[in-house]
Predict the structure.
Amino acid sequence: MNVQCLKTINRVELMPNIPSPFQMRDWKALAKAYDEFVFNFDLTGDFLPLIWWDKSHRNFKRDTFGFPSFVGSKFKGKDGSQEAINCVAAVLGATLVGIDKSNQDGHNWVLMCENYYNVDNGEYLFLNTANW
């Protein structure tokens, strides 16, 4: 049996476990503010609103939603250009901080994420796009 010992690094030992000054960001409040921002159809300004309705009914016979993969994307607002990694993450993140995305302002954002389960192309997989 080979036993290895940890070595002490003097310079590292001088570093504090918690830096000073230190202030933990309120991640729950930030996640709620993010949800309020990205799901707001009424925002105005450059590249706003970020959200749009996708009415292509790809994979399922219901409207879904999209966000651009990045602010300023030339594909913003084009049905099917949204990615699950961005849209589903926004729904999951909001859910984790207590926002009921299955019934928010009359919309079931959770059900809309089903759009990424690709049935129209016969793959029957949850993919990053609706796989046109």
